[in-house]
Amino acid sequence: MGEVDPAFVQDQQHRPKLSIIQAEGIPQIDLTPILQHELPNPSTIDTLVKEIGSASREWGFFQVINHGVPLSLRQKLEEASRKFFAQSLEDKKKVGRDENNPTGYYDTEHTKNVRDWKEVFNFLSKDPTFVPLTSDEDDDRVIQWSNPSPQYPPQLRDIIEEYIEEMEKLAYKLLELIALSLGVEAKRFEEFFKDQTSLIRFNHYPPCPYPHLALGVGRHKDPGVLTILAQDDVGGLEVKRKTDQEWVLVKPIPNAYIINVGDIIQVWSNDAYESVEHRVTVNSEKERFSIPFFFFPAHDTEVKPLEELINEENPSRYKPYNWGKFLVNRKSSNFQKKNVENIQIYHYKI
Ligand SMILES: O=C(O)CCC(=O)C(=O)O
Ligand SMILES: [Fe+2]
């Protein structure tokens, strides 16, 4: 392992710094006011909506506590993820991803054409999930993606499915708060999720002998609506701070979730909220595990700024685009290392 594999080496300007800034500023938001057993109190909800609005505007990232997801379930899932990755490569590849179906195990992901120091296991919220066959605008054929059936650890599928239900509940609550913070109806976005394309991912970042050259995940923005991330206590997620463009570490808080707004909320909000760049550093001693839930709408969703927010002073900044086509375009460019930039929302800027 002493040899440096050039596929993992980041360009000089993207290599992680050895001195890390702790992002104490990333807002921590207490969701107690919307917990099921609490009687909704309009003034505390109003305060919460304002907190979520400013966090989305100023950071694009925040952490939530008292979110209602049972800790025992999260622990069960984290343990299952560790057991899954502890298997031999041969066993993991039995549920390997292929070019036609992005679910299952995968260890050669690239972000911006540099290989990520990680292995992943992807699992869809809905089985089957409907997506376009190709990213070609004129091709209206639709196919189904489905989930693998891992044999080990036992009950893995059941545990993931139970956890996904909790993720969806939390995602809908957060989405309502975000809608209110933008001044639109709480349920404004619900219609887009009937046939959602959401997925959950297990990430495993093994110790890396050259953490100053490689990254667990290279800098990127999340393309969907929201990401709900469970990280362990090792740390490594860095966010690009909007005020000064410095990379700052997101401090692990036990049992909290890290939420970030994705590209679709940036477009819906017509740039009021920003999908912020982030990356993952690795270290030479400790392995790290994380589990993001990517909340994605139905494939036939036309993504465009909300009409309610558009007027003469605030004209639409994006041309509409089709989510399914965007997703499929991304999947194929991440699967195959291509020496061109993959699709980005700024390609739809007016
Ligand atoms: O592992 C993490 O902390 C974040 C991973 C991430 O950004 C992603 O999978 O999109
Ligand atoms: Fe991400």
Automatic annotation (TrEMBL):
The Fe2OG dioxygenase domain, residue ranges: 195-297
Any GO molecular function: dioxygenase activity
Keyword terms of this UniProt record: Dioxygenase, Iron, Metal-binding, Oxidoreductase
SUPFAM superfamilies, sorted: Clavaminate synthase-like
Keyword hit for Transcription regulation: no
PROSITE patterns from the UniProt entry: FE2OG_OXY
InterPro entries in the record: DIOX_N, IPNS-like_FE2OG_OXY, IPNS-like_sf, Iron_ascorbate_oxido_reductase, Oxoglu/Fe-dep_dioxygenase_dom
Segments forming a coiled coil: none
UniProt record similarity statement: Belongs to the iron/ascorbate-dependent oxidoreductase family.
UniProt-recorded name of the protein: Probable 2-oxoglutarate-dependent dioxygenase At5g05600
Native species: Cicer arietinum (Chickpea)
